[in-house]
Every structure is written in structure tokens, then in C-alpha cells.
What we know:
This protein is of the alpha+beta class and about 425 residues long. It has two domains: about 15-160 and about 320-385, Periplasmic binding protein-like II (D-Maltodextrin-Binding Protein, domain 2), CATH 3.40.190; about 160-320 and about 395-435, Periplasmic binding protein-like II (D-Maltodextrin-Binding Protein, domain 2, 3-Layer(aba) Sandwich), CATH 3.40.190.10. Helices cover about 40% and strands about 15% of the residues. The protein has 19 helices and 13 strands. It has helices at about 15-20, 35-40, 60-75, 85-100, 115-120, 125-130, 165-170, 180-195, 210-220, 240-255, 265-275, 285-295, 335-345, 350-355, 365-370, 380-385, 395-400, 405-415, 420-435, and strands spanning about 50-55, 80-85, 105-110, 120-125, 145, 150, 155-160, 160-165, 225-230, 230-235, 280-285, 305, 320-330. The strands form four sheets. Strands 1, 2, 3, 4, 7 and 13 form a six-stranded mixed beta sheet that branches. Strands 11-8-12 form a three-stranded antiparallel beta sheet. Strand 9 and strand 10 (about 230-235) form a beta hairpin. The longest helix is centred in the N-terminal third of the chain and has 18 residues, at about 60-75. Residues about 1-25 and about 30-40 have low confidence and may be disordered.
Amino acid sequence: MRIAKITATTVTTAALALGLAACGGSSEQPPSSSPSAAASGPAYAGKTLSVWRLGDSNPAAAKYMEELNAEFTKTTGAQVKLEWIPWPQVADKFAAAATGTGPDVTEIGNDQVPMWQSQDALTAITDIAREGDRSQIPQNLYGYETVDNEIYAIPWGAGARAVLYRKDWFEELKIETPKTWDELVAAAKKIQAEKKGVDGFAFNGGSDANHLLAAFAWSEGGEYAVKEGDKWVGKLTEPAFAAGFGTYTGLVTDGLSNKANLTHDTTHIRTRFANDKVAMYLTAAWDLSGIEEESKGKLKGDKIGFFPLPAKTGGVAPSFFGGNDIALWGTTQQADLGKEYIKLATSKTWADRYAKEGGLLPVYPDTLQAMNEDPAQGPFAQAFAKAKAFPADPNWSEADATKAVLQNAARAVIEGKKDATAALADANKELEEILNQ
């Protein structure tokens, strides 16, 4: 049951973020004690704080957490009990913790904040969200995190998507890296003419399909739905969204992607890419290790690369604003100590390290700006500069993944069961019903 109304806060372009004046200064540190505590030692000596990190640990992440926790102990006197939660177990662990015992502080996906806030699983941390170094984090990055004018999580690191392509094929066929949509289409067709059975640009119709569709729709100025008062109003039938939807389904109807792969998500596409069946697709850097493994070491950095997805209307297409936040759990009995941990972790020094060492994008504008020219991260930084988000509602995941509203609409059009106008009208009605439950 929903117990809170999501604000109409909109995640707009992060380009605004890059234009903000970022004041300098060193990383803030949590106060270790009050004046009276100074004589007797750190204020939280003897306390233990439980912290959850999501995913599997790796050497870089383990080193970061070891050093972050050591700094926290040094300044507060408190110890940290760290637990890593593998991604396949996150939903079940969060669900169990929401009705029982959870951590004090947790990492959390930014688009998951509205849902878990609606279950009373998170504690508001508005009082620390905009103080200290965090005043430099652009306000427009708090779209998912803000509910009823209260902030329930702080951005820690961001993610964006770009086009992964076969650099070796481009070099072999003397194709320049595309900077416009027409150049991308021409490159895809040229590769298909030379390499039979290959998707020039892979259609994504699976669980994460909206990351690709959204890029096309947002670049036309379209939106999925907007909050008008207390009600979500679908915008799928408006011309701008319909234009992006046409580009999306056109990947298959125009022959750039094989019709046999309509239900494939990024994981399936990655496997086909690793096996020489895909020339280009939209994804993120985390696919690289899987591709190297699945190709048995054949496809490494010298044969593959990234470039920003060109918008059909010109420039770079907006990317989904993904990312990881850090939040205070709803049942914590150590709210003050938990806030001290969050303040340290999201200070500029530690947040920049979290992003860079974790393969994410930094949320501090000046650090992000400096990455634009980086050969590896530049395409993602450019995409993130125009990042947007899906409707910030707890029910979005039902429309996106469970009911697959847009995926079903696209499939109906591609298979000739509906025309685009009818498919989008039906999808718009279903989307409104889900979001307004």
C-alpha cells in the first residue's frame, strides 16, 4: 500500500549540473566529538554501525570500503560491520529487512528509493543532504530521492549508457565513428552488407528495453508520464514520444536488427555481441568483463569501444540517469551515527573515489566535467550530461518490468498486430492505471 505521494520533482538534464559553480574546498569530515567529549575520546566509541553494500565485492571496492571505514572509526570511534549483498538477493533482503531487522545504512539504487520509502524502509535525511560538500551536488539529481519535500537518499555515484561497438569492424570497413543518427544507420547497414546475420544496431525488447526506447523518446522531447497535481498523466500518445517510439520499432522494421530477437535484453545482446552477431548496442561499461569472458578473450579493449548515442534530432541523445545512492534505513536505532557515516561517504573526496574506483560517474560537477575528454569514460560523461529519469513512482517497476507495457506495445507494432497509434493509446491507458494505483 502506498503511504506517501511522490513529489512532482523532475529529474531534468544534468547539463544544468555542469553549469553550476562548484565551490572548492577540502572534503568534509564528520565531527568526532563535542567539546565535552573531546577530553574523553570520540563521541561514538564502543558503538557499531551496520552497513550494506550491494553486489559482489572486488579488490578495488574492498580497499575503498576498508579505508572509508577506517576513517570513520578514526573520527567517530565507532566500528563498522560491513555486509555485501549480491545483486540477485537484494530484493529479497530489502523486503525481509523492511518488516524485520535491517542495516543502519545501505547502498541503494536511485530508482528504488520511491518504492522502499513507500514501505517506510528509509529514514528522511533532509537535514544533511544539502550541507557541507553536498551543497555542490546539483539539485536536479535528487529527483528519485525526494518524496513529499523530504530527501531519503543522497547520490553517491551515477551511471549512464552509451553505444558499445566493434571498433575492429569499423576499422576494417573504414567506417568513421558515428556522430549523427544517419551516420550510425549507414554504418550499421554497411556492416550488415559485409557480415551476414549480424544486427547492425541491436533492438532491446527485454526487461531493460526502456533504457533504449527512452533515449529515442527523450531526444524528441517526449515523456512517459508527468505528475499533474496528485495524478500521473500519460504522455505516450503525444507526437514527441510517438516519434521516438517510431525510431525504436524502426530498428527492426527497417532491418537494422533481426526480428527473431524481439524479447532479448542487454544480457542476451551482450552474449550475441561476444559471438560476432551484433555490431552496436546501447549499454554500460559493466558489460566489458562479460564480453571478454564470453568471447574467450577474443574481444578486448583494442577491438571494442564506446561512443555517445546520437540523437535523431541532432547532438547526443539523453541517457537514463542511473546510479547508486546511500541511505539511512527506516528501523535504525542509530540515526545520528548513521548520518555521520553518510556525511563522510558523500563528502567530495570519498564520493569521487566511490565513483571512479567503482566504474561510475561522479556526482560532483567539476569532477564530472573533467571526465569528458577521458577515452574510456568520456562517452558516458557526455551522455550523463543530458541524463533523465523514468517517472519517480513506486509503481514504475511494475509498468517497466513486470507488465512490460512498452515492450508489449512495440512487439504488437513490429508483428503487425496493431498500428503505432493504437498500440500507444492502449499502453498509455495501462501506464496511467499502474502509476495511479
